[in-house]
Amino acid sequence: MNPHGFPSRMTVGKLMELLAGKAGLLDGQFHYGTAFGGDKVEDMCQDLIRHGYNYLGKDFFTSGITG
Questions:
Q1: Mean pLDDT, to the nearest integer, of 11-35?
Q2: Closest of 51, 36, 45 to residue 18, by C-alpha
Q3: Could you tell me if 32 and 39 are in contact, meaning their C-beta atoms sit under 8 angstroms apart?
Q4: Cα–Cα distance, 57 to 14 (Å, whole number)
Q5: Which residue ranges does the record assign to the DNA-directed RNA polymerase subunit 2 hybrid-binding domain (predicted)?
Q6: Where residue 16 falls among pLDDT bands split at 50, 70, 90?
Q7: Of residues 40 and 5, more confidently modeled
Q8: Of 33, 36, 39, 56, which is least packed with CB atoms within 10 Å of its CB?
Q9: Torsions phi, psi of 27, nearest 5?
Q10: By 3-state DSSP, what share of the chain in percent is helix, strand and coil, each rounded to 5?
């Protein structure tokens, strides 16, 4: 994502959709991740905490090739 696009509403919706997708994957159910209704961001963040992930959805990845 282009960092210059973060002030727009579409980019905020994209971040919410990414969070909803990750929380839904862990819960095994669908989450409605748009800015206009559905699941609250706080509820999705609590789902991440319940499964041992960071509250904000930030993860660190390690390369299998370079370590």
A1: 84
A2: 45
A3: yes
A4: 13
A5: 1-67
A6: confident
A7: 40
A8: 36
A9: -85, -20
A10: 50, 0, 50
The label of the residue with tokens 């002030």 reads: 7
Of 17-21, 33-37, 53-57, 58-62, which gets the smallest average pLDDT? 33-37
Q: What is the pLDDT of residues 36-45, one digit of tens each?
A: 777 888 988 8
Site of tokens 């969070």: 19
Question: Which residues contact residue 34 at a Cβ distance below 8 angstroms, ignoring those fewer than 6 apart?
Answer: 13, 16, 17
C-beta separation of 33 from 39 below 8 A: yes
